[in-house]
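Write out C-alpha coordinates for Biotin-dependent carboxylase uncharacterized domain-containing protein.
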Amino acid sequence: MAIATVLKTGPGSSIQDLGRRGQANLGIPLSGAMDMKSFAWINHILQNEVNDAALEVSQPGFQIQFDSPTYIAIAGAEAIVRLNDQLIEKSNLIAIQSKDLLEIGAFLSGSIVYIGIKYGFKTPKILGSRSQYKGLTEDSILHKGTKIQYFMDSEASPVFNAKAKWSTEWYREEEILAYPGPDFHLLKENLREKLIGQTFRISQQSNRMGAQLLELLENDLPELPTNPVFPGTVQLTSGGKLIILLKDAQVTGGYPRILQLDVESQWKLAQKKPGSKVRFKLFQPRISTISR
Protein backbone atom coordinates (compact mmCIF):
# COMPACT_ATOMS: atom_id res chain seq x y z
CA MET A 1 0.00 0.00 0.00
CA ALA A 2 1.35 3.44 -1.01
CA ILE A 3 1.29 6.55 1.20
CA ALA A 4 0.42 10.17 0.47
CA THR A 5 1.61 12.66 3.11
CA VAL A 6 -0.02 16.03 3.70
CA LEU A 7 2.80 18.57 4.04
CA LYS A 8 0.71 21.71 4.38
CA THR A 9 -3.00 22.42 4.78
CA GLY A 10 -5.35 25.12 5.93
CA PRO A 11 -8.41 24.57 8.15
CA GLY A 12 -11.38 22.67 6.79
CA SER A 13 -9.79 20.31 4.26
CA SER A 14 -10.91 16.70 4.65
CA ILE A 15 -11.49 13.28 3.08
CA GLN A 16 -14.98 12.80 1.65
CA ASP A 17 -17.04 10.31 -0.33
CA LEU A 18 -20.81 10.05 -0.89
CA GLY A 19 -21.46 10.19 2.85
CA ARG A 20 -23.55 8.19 5.32
CA ARG A 21 -27.10 7.56 4.20
CA GLY A 22 -29.79 6.07 6.40
CA GLN A 23 -28.20 7.14 9.71
CA ALA A 24 -30.35 10.18 10.50
CA ASN A 25 -32.40 8.24 13.05
CA LEU A 26 -29.17 7.92 15.04
CA GLY A 27 -28.49 11.66 14.82
CA ILE A 28 -25.67 11.17 12.31
CA PRO A 29 -25.51 13.74 9.50
CA LEU A 30 -25.15 12.83 5.85
CA SER A 31 -21.66 14.36 5.37
CA GLY A 32 -19.92 13.56 2.08
CA ALA A 33 -18.60 15.86 -0.66
CA MET A 34 -20.13 19.33 -0.58
CA ASP A 35 -19.95 19.65 -4.37
CA MET A 36 -21.06 16.30 -5.76
CA LYS A 37 -20.76 17.48 -9.35
CA SER A 38 -17.00 17.99 -9.04
CA PHE A 39 -16.60 14.88 -6.89
CA ALA A 40 -18.40 12.72 -9.47
CA TRP A 41 -16.32 14.23 -12.29
CA ILE A 42 -12.95 13.24 -10.86
CA ASN A 43 -14.08 9.67 -10.16
CA HIS A 44 -15.46 9.47 -13.70
CA ILE A 45 -12.17 10.69 -15.20
CA LEU A 46 -10.25 8.15 -13.10
CA GLN A 47 -12.76 5.39 -13.94
CA ASN A 48 -13.20 4.83 -10.21
CA GLU A 49 -16.20 3.53 -8.31
CA VAL A 50 -18.71 6.32 -7.64
CA ASN A 51 -18.06 6.21 -3.87
CA ASP A 52 -14.24 6.25 -3.97
CA ALA A 53 -12.96 8.80 -1.46
CA ALA A 54 -11.29 12.05 -2.53
CA LEU A 55 -9.68 15.04 -0.84
CA GLU A 56 -11.84 18.14 -0.35
CA VAL A 57 -9.47 21.13 -0.17
CA SER A 58 -10.97 24.40 1.05
CA GLN A 59 -7.88 26.61 1.42
CA PRO A 60 -5.02 27.57 -0.94
CA GLY A 61 -1.51 26.43 -0.05
CA PHE A 62 -2.39 22.76 0.28
CA GLN A 63 0.60 20.44 -0.35
CA ILE A 64 0.69 16.66 -0.58
CA GLN A 65 3.49 14.27 -1.55
CA PHE A 66 3.04 10.79 -3.04
CA ASP A 67 5.57 8.03 -2.38
CA SER A 68 4.55 5.79 -5.33
CA PRO A 69 3.23 6.09 -8.92
CA THR A 70 -0.49 6.61 -9.50
CA TYR A 71 -3.00 8.78 -11.36
CA ILE A 72 -4.91 11.71 -9.90
CA ALA A 73 -7.61 14.08 -11.19
CA ILE A 74 -8.58 17.56 -10.02
CA ALA A 75 -11.87 19.46 -10.32
CA GLY A 76 -14.02 21.99 -8.46
CA ALA A 77 -12.73 25.51 -7.90
CA GLU A 78 -10.45 27.12 -10.47
CA ALA A 79 -7.05 27.19 -8.77
CA ILE A 80 -3.37 27.42 -9.61
CA VAL A 81 -1.95 23.89 -9.44
CA ARG A 82 1.73 22.95 -9.44
CA LEU A 83 3.39 19.55 -9.65
CA ASN A 84 7.00 19.64 -8.46
CA ASP A 85 6.81 23.45 -8.65
CA GLN A 86 5.72 23.38 -12.32
CA LEU A 87 2.32 24.72 -13.43
CA ILE A 88 0.19 21.92 -14.85
CA GLU A 89 -2.97 21.47 -16.88
CA LYS A 90 -5.50 20.12 -14.40
CA SER A 91 -8.57 19.25 -16.49
CA ASN A 92 -7.37 15.74 -17.39
CA LEU A 93 -5.61 12.77 -15.82
CA ILE A 94 -2.35 13.61 -14.06
CA ALA A 95 0.34 10.93 -13.83
CA ILE A 96 2.12 10.86 -10.48
CA GLN A 97 5.59 9.40 -9.95
CA SER A 98 7.40 8.52 -6.73
CA LYS A 99 8.11 11.54 -4.50
CA ASP A 100 6.02 13.92 -6.62
CA LEU A 101 4.79 17.02 -4.76
CA LEU A 102 1.40 18.50 -5.61
CA GLU A 103 0.46 22.02 -4.51
CA ILE A 104 -2.91 23.79 -4.72
CA GLY A 105 -2.22 27.52 -4.94
CA ALA A 106 -4.49 30.56 -5.15
CA PHE A 107 -8.19 30.02 -5.85
CA LEU A 108 -9.18 32.08 -8.88
CA SER A 109 -12.86 31.22 -8.54
CA GLY A 110 -14.88 28.86 -6.38
CA SER A 111 -14.03 27.70 -2.87
CA ILE A 112 -13.44 23.92 -2.95
CA VAL A 113 -10.92 21.85 -4.94
CA TYR A 114 -11.30 18.08 -5.19
CA ILE A 115 -8.31 15.78 -5.62
CA GLY A 116 -9.19 12.25 -6.65
CA ILE A 117 -6.80 9.31 -6.93
CA LYS A 118 -6.96 6.03 -8.85
CA TYR A 119 -9.04 3.54 -6.78
CA GLY A 120 -9.70 6.24 -4.16
CA PHE A 121 -7.98 7.13 -0.87
CA LYS A 122 -8.03 4.17 1.53
CA THR A 123 -8.88 5.44 4.99
CA PRO A 124 -10.99 3.36 7.42
CA LYS A 125 -14.72 3.16 6.74
CA ILE A 126 -16.94 4.21 9.63
CA LEU A 127 -20.64 3.31 9.23
CA GLY A 128 -20.06 2.63 5.56
CA SER A 129 -18.24 5.87 4.71
CA ARG A 130 -14.72 7.33 4.76
CA SER A 131 -16.07 10.89 5.17
CA GLN A 132 -14.41 12.65 8.07
CA TYR A 133 -16.69 14.00 10.78
CA LYS A 134 -15.90 15.26 14.29
CA GLY A 135 -16.64 12.73 17.00
CA LEU A 136 -17.13 9.91 14.55
CA THR A 137 -13.84 9.48 12.69
CA GLU A 138 -10.41 9.65 14.34
CA ASP A 139 -9.78 13.09 12.78
CA SER A 140 -12.39 15.49 11.43
CA ILE A 141 -10.01 17.33 9.11
CA LEU A 142 -6.63 16.85 7.47
CA HIS A 143 -3.55 18.02 9.37
CA LYS A 144 0.07 18.64 8.50
CA GLY A 145 1.68 15.20 8.59
CA THR A 146 -1.52 13.23 7.91
CA LYS A 147 -0.66 10.05 6.00
CA ILE A 148 -3.26 8.56 3.65
CA GLN A 149 -3.03 5.17 2.02
CA TYR A 150 -3.72 4.48 -1.68
CA PHE A 151 -3.07 1.74 -4.24
CA MET A 152 -0.02 2.38 -6.42
CA ASP A 153 -0.12 2.05 -10.22
CA SER A 154 3.34 1.24 -11.53
CA GLU A 155 2.19 1.84 -15.15
CA ALA A 156 1.23 5.49 -14.61
CA SER A 157 2.30 7.43 -17.71
CA PRO A 158 2.05 11.16 -18.53
CA VAL A 159 1.04 10.43 -22.16
CA PHE A 160 -2.70 10.56 -22.99
CA ASN A 161 -4.61 10.58 -26.26
CA ALA A 162 -7.57 12.63 -25.02
CA LYS A 163 -8.05 15.61 -22.74
CA ALA A 164 -11.21 16.15 -20.74
CA LYS A 165 -12.55 19.69 -20.35
CA TRP A 166 -13.79 20.86 -16.95
CA SER A 167 -15.83 24.07 -16.91
CA THR A 168 -16.44 26.23 -13.84
CA GLU A 169 -19.17 28.38 -15.43
CA TRP A 170 -21.98 26.39 -13.82
CA TYR A 171 -21.29 27.58 -10.27
CA ARG A 172 -20.72 31.24 -11.14
CA GLU A 173 -24.45 31.98 -11.53
CA GLU A 174 -26.09 33.89 -8.69
CA GLU A 175 -29.46 32.18 -9.06
CA ILE A 176 -30.14 29.12 -6.91
CA LEU A 177 -33.29 27.05 -7.33
CA ALA A 178 -35.44 26.31 -4.27
CA TYR A 179 -38.75 24.65 -3.45
CA PRO A 180 -41.21 25.96 -0.86
CA GLY A 181 -40.27 24.45 2.51
CA PRO A 182 -42.72 22.85 4.96
CA ASP A 183 -43.13 26.20 6.75
CA PHE A 184 -43.15 28.48 3.70
CA HIS A 185 -46.88 29.05 4.19
CA LEU A 186 -46.14 30.86 7.47
CA LEU A 187 -44.48 33.72 5.58
CA LYS A 188 -46.62 36.75 4.85
CA GLU A 189 -46.84 37.81 1.22
CA ASN A 190 -44.45 40.76 1.64
CA LEU A 191 -41.81 38.46 3.19
CA ARG A 192 -42.22 35.96 0.35
CA GLU A 193 -41.65 38.73 -2.18
CA LYS A 194 -38.58 39.98 -0.32
CA LEU A 195 -37.17 36.47 0.04
CA ILE A 196 -37.48 35.73 -3.66
CA GLY A 197 -36.80 39.21 -5.01
CA GLN A 198 -33.77 40.21 -2.91
CA THR A 199 -30.09 39.51 -3.52
CA PHE A 200 -28.28 38.02 -0.52
CA ARG A 201 -24.58 37.71 0.30
CA ILE A 202 -22.77 34.73 1.81
CA SER A 203 -21.48 35.43 5.33
CA GLN A 204 -18.03 34.61 6.68
CA GLN A 205 -19.92 32.45 9.21
CA SER A 206 -20.21 29.56 6.76
CA ASN A 207 -18.76 26.06 6.88
CA ARG A 208 -19.65 22.45 6.13
CA MET A 209 -22.58 22.65 8.58
CA GLY A 210 -24.26 25.59 6.89
CA ALA A 211 -24.04 28.92 5.10
CA GLN A 212 -25.39 32.06 6.74
CA LEU A 213 -26.60 35.01 4.68
CA LEU A 214 -25.71 38.57 5.67
CA GLU A 215 -29.01 40.28 4.91
CA LEU A 216 -31.76 39.81 7.51
CA LEU A 217 -35.38 38.93 6.86
CA GLU A 218 -37.28 40.46 9.79
CA ASN A 219 -40.27 38.36 10.78
CA ASP A 220 -42.70 37.46 13.52
CA LEU A 221 -42.93 33.74 12.83
CA PRO A 222 -43.96 31.54 15.78
CA GLU A 223 -41.56 29.18 17.51
CA LEU A 224 -41.87 25.64 16.21
CA PRO A 225 -41.19 22.20 17.67
CA THR A 226 -38.05 20.40 16.53
CA ASN A 227 -38.52 18.91 13.07
CA PRO A 228 -36.41 16.94 10.57
CA VAL A 229 -34.03 18.98 8.41
CA PHE A 230 -31.81 18.05 5.48
CA PRO A 231 -28.87 19.44 3.51
CA GLY A 232 -30.33 22.31 1.50
CA THR A 233 -32.97 23.25 4.09
CA VAL A 234 -33.22 27.05 4.47
CA GLN A 235 -34.04 28.05 8.05
CA LEU A 236 -35.24 31.48 9.19
CA THR A 237 -34.43 32.48 12.78
CA SER A 238 -36.54 34.80 14.92
CA GLY A 239 -33.75 37.37 14.57
CA GLY A 240 -34.11 37.33 10.79
CA LYS A 241 -31.03 35.26 9.93
CA LEU A 242 -31.23 32.93 6.95
CA ILE A 243 -29.25 29.70 7.39
CA ILE A 244 -28.80 27.21 4.56
CA LEU A 245 -27.94 23.80 5.98
CA LEU A 246 -25.16 21.84 4.28
CA LYS A 247 -23.65 18.36 4.42
CA ASP A 248 -22.54 18.24 8.08
CA ALA A 249 -25.68 19.89 9.46
CA GLN A 250 -27.70 18.43 12.32
CA VAL A 251 -30.64 16.19 11.39
CA THR A 252 -33.28 18.15 13.36
CA GLY A 253 -33.95 21.83 13.97
CA GLY A 254 -36.52 24.16 15.49
CA TYR A 255 -36.38 27.14 13.13
CA PRO A 256 -39.03 27.48 10.40
CA ARG A 257 -38.00 25.62 7.24
CA ILE A 258 -39.01 28.12 4.59
CA LEU A 259 -37.17 26.75 1.54
CA GLN A 260 -35.43 23.61 0.33
CA LEU A 261 -32.64 23.94 -2.24
CA ASP A 262 -32.47 21.42 -5.07
CA VAL A 263 -29.32 19.30 -5.14
CA GLU A 264 -27.53 21.12 -7.96
CA SER A 265 -28.07 24.44 -6.20
CA GLN A 266 -26.51 22.95 -3.07
CA TRP A 267 -23.40 22.07 -5.11
CA LYS A 268 -23.36 25.57 -6.59
CA LEU A 269 -23.69 27.14 -3.14
CA ALA A 270 -20.78 25.04 -1.85
CA GLN A 271 -18.51 26.76 -4.38
CA LYS A 272 -19.54 30.28 -3.33
CA LYS A 273 -16.97 32.34 -1.42
CA PRO A 274 -17.95 34.61 1.50
CA GLY A 275 -19.33 37.82 0.03
CA SER A 276 -20.68 36.09 -3.07
CA LYS A 277 -24.22 37.03 -4.10
CA VAL A 278 -27.12 34.60 -4.43
CA ARG A 279 -30.75 34.97 -5.45
CA PHE A 280 -33.46 32.40 -4.74
CA LYS A 281 -35.60 31.27 -7.65
CA LEU A 282 -38.76 29.53 -6.53
CA PHE A 283 -39.51 26.32 -8.39
CA GLN A 284 -42.75 26.56 -10.32
CA PRO A 285 -44.18 23.17 -11.30
CA ARG A 286 -45.32 22.84 -14.86
CA ILE A 287 -49.04 22.30 -15.30
CA SER A 288 -49.87 20.38 -18.44
CA THR A 289 -53.22 20.73 -20.12
CA ILE A 290 -54.86 18.08 -22.24
CA SER A 291 -57.14 19.35 -24.96
CA ARG A 292 -60.12 17.23 -25.85
